[in-house]
Structures are given as C-alpha cells and as structure tokens.
C-alpha cells in the first residue's frame, strides 16, 4: 500500500473503492451533458505549450526594464545638468559680488574643456556603425493558426527546442545623420535617422520530419528614427566620456525567406513591420579642430521584431517531380537586437 493511502482512514479508503467500482450509468451528467461525438475535435485547441508561454512575458519584462533604464538615464542627466547650471550661476555671482571686472566674471563661468564650448548651440552629426546581431529565433506568431496555416506549428523540434528557425542577422552596417542641441555643458538632445541598407538572416530550422540540413536565409533592410539624450561627463585630458539612451521607431523589410531541405525548397512571403526601438550607448569624444568633434562609442540597440508576411508561400520540389504547391502562410517573427561600434563626427553650427 502506498504512503498516501496508508494515511487515509479505513472509512475513506472504503469510499474510494466504492467510487472506483461505480458503473458509468450511476454518474449524473444532468448539469454537464456527456459528449459522445468527437469527429470535429481538435487536440490542443485551447492549450498553449508551456515552453512557449513565457516568451511574450520575457519580452514584456525586457521592455519594462529598457524603459526604466531610459527614464533613469534621462532623469540623471537632467539632475546633473541642473546642478551644473546652479554651480555656474553661484560661481558667477561670487565673482561679480567680489568687485571683479566683467571680463573676469566671463572667464570664471566659461568651461575649461573645449568640448563643452558647444553648449547652447545646435550641431550636426554624421557617422557609420557596425553592429553584431544577437542570436534569435523565428517562430509562429500563432502556432495553432489553421487559416492561414502556421509555418512551424506547436511543440518541440528535432533538437528538443520549440519548432522554429534559430540563427542570427549577421553583421549590420549602416550610416546615420543627426541634429542635436547642447542644452548645457552636460546635456545634449538629438534627433537621428539611421539606415541599414542590407543584412542577411542565416539559420536552421528544426522540423522533426526532416533529418538532413534545414537551412533558412533571408535578406533585410531597416530604417530607424530616434530621439536621444546624452550626458557628457567630466573629461580626462583631450577625451570626454559620454552616456546616452533614446527611443523611436524602426521599420524593417524582409525579402522572401528561403528554406532549403533535402528534397524541397519552401519560400515564405516577404514582410514589413514598424516597431518600437531603443538604444543605449557609452563612449568618448575628442575635439579634432574648431567646431569639429569625433565621437567613438559602443551601442546596444533593440529594433523590435522582424515579421514575415501573411500571404501565399510555395513549396518547390527540387527534382521537379511535382508542380509547386501554394500555401497561405501565417506570420512568423523574430526579435532583432545587437551591439557594436559607432564612429561619427559632430559639427557645431
């Protein structure tokens, strides 16, 4: 006898035996009538796999932390900028109150670092970036979708992970232009436009029915517009470190996705998505010559999701023994993020 049954009283054990031996005809189903017709039943219709359930929760949590980080950085920048302005005002008042001449007052309030002379001035910035994308996974937005059909479906693949395609977007190269305003010696605000003309997704699917290579490739491009705030920290010799963060909108286009299997090629429709994007950066700046500053930074960017289109896909047999099969496919998506080097020139107007 098991330990659980041993803890039950003899009366309760007798009741359990009577229930186990009760015929089905004795079960009252008046409140919930018994279903005997299962011809149209679908397994898993109201079940979301446990290993896929936390995905959106993690994404929401990540977005909350990123948003909190941006708010904290901007708040810190505003506080430090306010303190700096108050100190400069107090210093100027002290000089004027001591009977010094106006020239001395101006010289005392002037920043000693050449990089800060651009305060209260507009500037233009242009640069190039080289980003290394993070590992990501394409999966169905709704793995239970029937019309249009989910590309991967629910469950685990041949490698034990959720069905999908795992890979990365390689190296993202591009350029950016920005216009900014140095509000104080410590704080700058900037509006910037970023363009990445072409990068490639390369990964592998994990369908259970296929044991050979399952290569997945697609070409992409993206355009981003952001508003950012930068905190210029005290300098060390000719170099002055800075911190920055910002957010905006990213639009990414993905061409047709090609999935290559041993006997067939599957072509997934192209798509476009606009999503919220955030970035955080740190680096240093140094003056090259009058009104020209070089910025060198390392930046992390989250560009949101890449999505394939809801449209007609095709299955093509490589030996031509069958005509191509057209399928109405549902949306798949993957997170796009990365970090990398930024080089730019800032010109004070």
Give descriptors for this structure:
349 residues; Porin; 46% strand; 14-stranded antiparallel β-sheet; 4 helices; alpha+beta
Helix/strand layout:
Blueprint: H1 3-6, H2 10-20, H3 54-97, H4 102-109, E1 121-133, E2 136-140, E3 165-168, E4 171-182, E5 187-205, E6 215-232, E7 239-254, E8 257-260, E9 264-268, E10 271-289, E11 292-307, E12 311-317, E13 325-329, E14 332-348
Antiparallel strand pairs: 1-4, 1-14, 2-3, 2-14, 3-5, 4-5, 5-6, 6-7, 6-8, 7-10, 8-9, 9-12, 10-11, 11-14, 12-13
Could you characterize the architecture of this molecule?
It is a single chain. The chain has 349 residues and is α+β, with helices and mostly antiparallel strands. It has a domain at 114-348: Porin, CATH 2.40.160.20. It has helices spanning 3-6, 10-20, 54-97, 102-109; strands spanning 121-133, 136-140, 165-168, 171-182, 187-205, 215-232, 239-254, 257-260, 264-268, 271-289, 292-307, 311-317, 325-329, 332-348. Strands 1, 2, 3, 4, 5, 6, 7, 8, 9, 10, 11, 12, 13 and 14 form a 14-stranded antiparallel β-sheet that branches. A hairpin with a 4-residue loop joins strand 4 and strand 5. Helix 3 (54-97) packs antiparallel against helix 4. The radius of gyration is 31 Å and the shape is elongated. The chain starts with a helix and ends with a strand. The relative contact order is 0.15.
